Amino acid sequence: MTTKFTVEHVLNTTPEGFWTRIQPNEEFYRALYVDHLGYEYELLECDLAVGTRKARIKPTADAPKVIREALGERFSFIEDGKYDATAGRYDFQIIPNTFTDKVHTTAYQIMVPHGSDQCVRTVHFEITANLLGLGAILEKFIARTTRESYGDSAKFTNDFLAKLG
User: Fold this and answer.
1) I want to staple 129 with a disulfide (CB 3.0 to 4.6 A). Which of 26, 50, 112, 138 is the partner?
2) DSSP 3-state assignment of 62?
């Protein structure tokens, strides 16, 4: 089974502002993941010249017992992405630290102008969990928590942008 969904949020910056002030801003990611969401976060690689970025993240979402038992209490994932400046698109995959051969999440993010000083962040996700008896439950959990965290991060991003001025 595969779960596909899209999240969209209005951000108080232009697409160019997002790609230059937020996407490459390590201070933003630390403030979002560590300070705001309470996650563990570690930047593994970042090459702004070619647009690549890789980070390890340990979320704190309260997973159902069956998922915690399957994935373990120390669940984390790596976000491995590449920004294509010409296309204005960030493609990434989420690589879990368990079941790496059975759970796959890919996504891409685009920014569309919205008025003169805003944009709509649109992220398309595709989640596949090939785990007998657990796949559908895990896909639904990932989709739900991803929607929630992206909604939360949109508000945080707008607050962060306001502080940047």
Assistant:
1) 138
2) coil
Q: How far is CA 112 from the centre of its chain?
A: 18
Instruction: Of 151, 146, 123, give the one whose Cα is nearest residue 63.
Output: 146
CA distances from 34 to 8, 26, 41, 45, 103 (A): 23, 12, 6, 18, 25
Mean pLDDT of 58-78: 84
Is CATH 3.30.530.20 the classification given to domain 2-164?
yes
Tell me the pLDDT band of 65, cut-offs 50, 70 and 90: confident
Question: Cα angle at 71 between 139 and 141, to 5 degrees?
Answer: 25
Residue type (1 letter), 63:
A
